[in-house]
């Protein structure tokens, strides 16, 4: 299942996903027809689930339109989603909420990536894999708790690695590592 943002709300993208028999959930663009359906839903004149056709100059694609209500500071808001899956609106909303967790995790992962100006894809791939390793190590040390934060863990890890290096100073130097050019 793909959790897509509104940027993929197009006949072409929907057609491609359906041709690959790939399940998807994405927020519906609040076009005039969608806004009209949302207003009718809010008044109780429309069900939370309905068949809907996304149209453009490139053609049409049939999808399911799911509407959920969310309480916010500004009152009740209607969140429209489109999907090709057989799920109810609350399930679509719950599944889509994972997208925010994934984006947050990717932002956190970026904190562990070393800076490089190298154009070598081998080195960049290695840095990416090392950052994933450190990120996962950080997640394990947190054990579901809020602390240590990413930057705190990074500082602690630096201190540990420096002290490890100092303790090993008395030993012979290992052979140099091969370069990844």
TrEMBL record:
Pfam families: DDE_Tnp_1. This is Transposase IS4-like domain-containing protein. One of its GO terms (molecular function) is transposase activity. One of its GO terms (biological process) is DNA transposition. It comes from the Archaea. InterPro entries: RNaseH-like_sf, Transposase_11. Residues 2-130 form the Transposase IS4-like domain.
């Amino acid at each position: 299942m793909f959790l897509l943002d509104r940027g993929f709300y197009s006949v072409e993208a929907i057609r491609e996903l359906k041709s690959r028999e790939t399940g998807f959930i994405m927020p519906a663009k609040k076009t005039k027809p969608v806004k009209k359906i949302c207003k009718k839903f809010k008044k109780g004149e429309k069900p939370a689930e309905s068949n809907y056709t996304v149209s453009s100059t490139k053609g049409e694609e049939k999808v399911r339109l799911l509407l959920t209500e969310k309480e916010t500071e500004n009152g009740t808001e209607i969140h429209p989603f489109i999907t090709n899956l057989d799920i109810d609106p609350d399930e679509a909303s719950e599944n889509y909420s994972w997208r925010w967790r994934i984006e947050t995790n990717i932002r956190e992962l970026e904190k562990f990536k070393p800076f490089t100006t190298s154009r070598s894809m081998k080195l960049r791939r290695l840095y990416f894999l090392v950052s994933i390793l450190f990120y996962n190590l950080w997640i394990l040390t947190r054990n579901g708790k809020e602390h240590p934060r990413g930057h705190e863990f990074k500082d602690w890890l630096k201190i540990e690695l420096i002290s490890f290096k100092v303790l090993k100073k008395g030993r012979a130097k290992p052979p140099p590592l091969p370069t990844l050019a």
